[in-house]
Amino acid sequence: MKPSIPKGTRDFSPVEVAKRKYIFNTIQKVFETYAFQPIETPSFENSSTLMGKYGEEGDRLIFKILNSGDYLSKVDDNLLQGKNSLKVTGKISEKALRYDLTVPFARYVVQHQNDIVFPFKRYQMQPVWRADRPQKGRFREFYQCDADVVGSKSLWQEVEFVQLYDNVFTELGLNETVIKINNRKILSGIAEIIGAKDKLIDFTVALDKLDKIGAEGVTKEMMAKGISEIALEKVKPLFDFTGTNQEKIDKLKLMLANSEEGMQGVEELEFVAQKIEKLGLQTSELEIDVTLARGLNYYTGAIFEVKAKNVKLGSIGGGGRYDDLTGIFGLKNISGIGISFGLDRIYLVLEELGLFKQVELPKPEVMFVNFGEEEAFYCLQAIKKLRENGIKSELFPDATKLKKQMNYANKREIPFVVLVGEKEVNENIFTLKSMESGKQTECNIDDLIRLLTI
């Protein structure tokens, strides 16, 4: 049977790896320009660290890892016969693959709190796993590139993250991006004034799907969750909430005048929007979107989502403010805010729009032709010196036909080859050939190093 890989995963060719590395390097450079420090966490965590942090929908998408050994031996027979998978899972699986980088980061902060200087600015670029249904731009294994600040409630962080998004996408040449922003306090305020405060999660999860299922679909979902028709009538203005950012803020002030929490959210949103308006963005556009909710339960303030214009693909970035994420691990009152870049979707957007710059694949600057054992050993002595001087070099491994060796050099786009026969060995010289011009030059090892470093 032909080998295959699991659905939702991919192999990457040398060209694809080089393109992905270009995105990684661009994001990393901007992260470090904004003074973020790198950390890494394990690919899997204790289940107790992850479960219950992403809402019911998120918990279902977490990949569980079976315990080592005979994992069923300690499970009660009655439990097995009851066929309750949730109860059985708790007995046979104590670890899980990470779903995102934020919850592991919160665990890291709590575990290493005595070694961290607050506010702590960290970035992290590692793979995550979700048992989602694979489709275009959605994979079961994918990379996230996150930046977070913990230990500060300052709204200047929100302003800087908008600038950081703009900076990265400008560097990548992706000049048609919309950075959407909302505030969970506004959503809580809306739920409060329509009398659905007790159904905040159901309300926000449904509202977040507006661009996917439309106003009718959102209305049906909210009704199915027990949100009344009177409440839905009050929500309708949100389905067509247009105007400039300031006009939207003014409408929200009227709508949420009787909600203290809602008004606080509006003030925070106005601060960020006005500061960005004055500072200016390079190529992106900041847009207030009151239907933006994002499904994760831990957001408490600003929420972000980034989309590329003219490309039918989901978000290429997202994030938000979480006031007490570390509290779930026992460290209270540590506010944080973070954003994430979806590397795989960014790749697809750059590919679709033809925005990848010419990506150089790793290759030698010179290849030594192999004419036999004695010549090969002579070549390897020279290659050793070239590599010590930082010159990428290789010896063709087989003493095969010259045409085959030259074809290899052509296909790898190697600019120079070195020919070493009996004459070169006897005279302690090398014949350097330019693959572009065909010109051949006889030289000693010092000249060879000099010619290859020009």
How many strand elements? 16
Mean pLDDT: 89
- Would you state the CATH class of the largest domain? Alpha Beta
**CATH fold topology of the largest domain:** BirA Bifunctional Protein, domain 2
Instruction: Report the C-alpha radius of gyration, rounded.
Output: 29 Å
Distance between the termini: 52 Å
By DSSP (H or I, 4+ residues per run), the number of helices equals 18
Percent strand equals 15-25%
CATH superfamily of the largest domain: Bira Bifunctional Protein, Domain 2
Main sheet makeup:
8 strands, mixed
Strand order across the largest sheet:
1-5-6-11-10-9-7-8
What is the helical fraction, as a range of percent?
40-55%
Structural class: alpha+beta
Give the overall shape, derived from the CA principal axes.
elongated
Low-confidence segments? none
Number of domains: 2
What's the CATH architecture of the largest domain? 2-Layer Sandwich
Characterise this structure.
The chain has 454 residues and is of the alpha+beta class. The chain folds into 2 domains: 14-41 and 99-352, BirA Bifunctional Protein, domain 2 (2-Layer Sandwich); 366-452, 3-Layer(aba) Sandwich (Rossmann fold). The chain is 42% helix and 18% strand. The protein has 18 helices and 16 strands. β15 (430-434) and β16 (440-443) form a beta hairpin. α1 packs antiparallel against α7. The longest helix is centred in the first third of the chain and has 20 residues, at 14-33. The radius of gyration is 29 Å and the shape is elongated.
